[in-house]
Amino acid sequence: MKKVEAIIRHFKLDEIKNALSETGVEGMTITEVKGYGRQKGHTEMYRGNEYAIDFVPKVKVEVVVPEASLKGVVDTIMSKAQTGQMGDGKIFVSDLAEVIRIRTGETGEDAV
Q1: pTM for the whole structure
Q2: The CATH number fitting domain 2-111, selected from 3.40.47.10, 3.30.1490.20, 3.40.50.2300, 3.30.70.120
Q3: Are the C-beta atoms of residues 23 and 72 closer than 8 Å to each other?
Q4: Which pLDDT tens digit goes with each residue over 73-112?
C-alpha cells in the first residue's frame, strides 16, 4: 500500500477529485494548508500598502492506493494539477506498513 500526498492549488481540487474518482480511487482526505517552496511567498497590494505573504495557501490531497494503482494515480494528479507556473505543488509517495478499518477490523487493501 502507498500513501500519496499532493500539495496543489485550490482551484485544481475539483478537477483532481473527479479525475481520481474516475480512476477508481474511492476515498481521499483534503486539508487546507499553508507553506512555501522555492517561490518564498509573494507580495500583494491592499489599499495602497504592500504586504508580504510568506505562507501561500494550498490544498493537500491524501489518498491510499494499492501499489498497482500508484503510477496511474500519480500521473492523474500530475496531469490535472500542472499549470506550468511556479507553485504548482508537490507529490509525496510513502509506504504504509498497515491500514486498519476501525469499524470492522479489516486490514490491508480490504480496509481501504
Answers
A1: 0.85
A2: 3.30.70.120
A3: yes
A4: 999 999 999 999 888 999 999 999 999 999 999 998 888 8
